[in-house]
Each structure stands twice: as C-alpha cells, then as structure tokens.
Amino acid sequence: MDTLNADTTWDRLGSIAQLLHQAATQVWSDADEATPDSPLHDLGLGVYLAHSQASALLPDDHELLDIDSLPNLEVRTPLQLLIEAEELTRPVPLHRPDLVHGSQLVVDLCDLIREARGLGY
C-alpha cells in the first residue's frame, strides 16, 4: 500500500513545483545582477528545468494549491527552497508507473542543492 494517497501525492508535487518556481525566480534575479558568465545562470536554468520536471509529473487537470499556503517563500534562500523541495519528494511513491520519472527529479534536486551550496547560497 502506498504511503500517500493520490491527492496527497499530487499536492506534494504541486508544492515542489511552486518551491522550485520561487527558487528559479530568485536565482534568475541574482543572475540578472551578476556578470554574463556567472554560474548563477547555469543554476537558474537547472532549477527552472527541475520545476518543469515536477510540473510534468502532475496530471493535466491538477489545480495547484494557493501559493499563500507556502508561507514566507520570499524570505527563504534558493538553497532553503531546494532543500525543502527535495525533502517533500521523500514519501512520494516513485515506484508507481505514472511517477517513474520522479527519480530523475530527486537526483537533479540533489545536484542543484550541491551546486547552490557551492555558490554560497
């Protein structure tokens, strides 16, 4: 038996997508102020791609929770947002056929966390 029911799984993936959207927005904002060859551009692209991965796992008819249900997004660093997104993946039943690509999302999140730490976030 799965540890999460379908609605909880989708809500969790929706929250991950929203966290990644906020992280990408913050990194791109920082990248806009950096030099054109800054590694922040690569990190921003990576976070944006992870956001797309999380969004692609959601059913087409799934409605995201109100962004206000995730408090203090704007005061959290991109690293904090990435860590929270990765933590939310832990109980998601990635063995299900409709979530098989979620494993790559987890790997990518771990890589992004390492990269963000290396950049001083």
If you compute it from the alpha carbons, what radius of gyration comes out, rounded to the nearest whole angstrom?
14 Å
- Helix-strand pattern: HHHH
Biggest sheet, open or closed, and with what strands and sense?
A: none
- How many domains? The number is 1
Q: How many helices does DSSP assign?
A: 4
- Relative helix content: 55-70%
SS-based structural class?
mainly alpha
Number of extended strands: 0
Strand content: under 5%
Backbone shape: globular
Q: What's the mean pLDDT score?
A: 89
What are the low-pLDDT stretches, counting only 5+ consecutive residues below 50? none
Terminal Cα separation, in Å?
Answer: 38 Å
Brief characterization of the structure:
This protein has 121 residues and is an all-alpha fold. The protein has helices at residues 6-33, 40-57, 78-89, 102-118.
Keywords for this structure?
121 residues, 4 helices, mainly alpha
SSE blueprint:
Layout: H1 6-33, H2 40-57, H3 78-89, H4 102-118
Commentary on this structure:
- It is a single chain.
- This protein has one domain (1-119).
- By secondary structure, the protein is mostly helical.
- It is built from four helices and no strands.
- The mean pLDDT is 89.
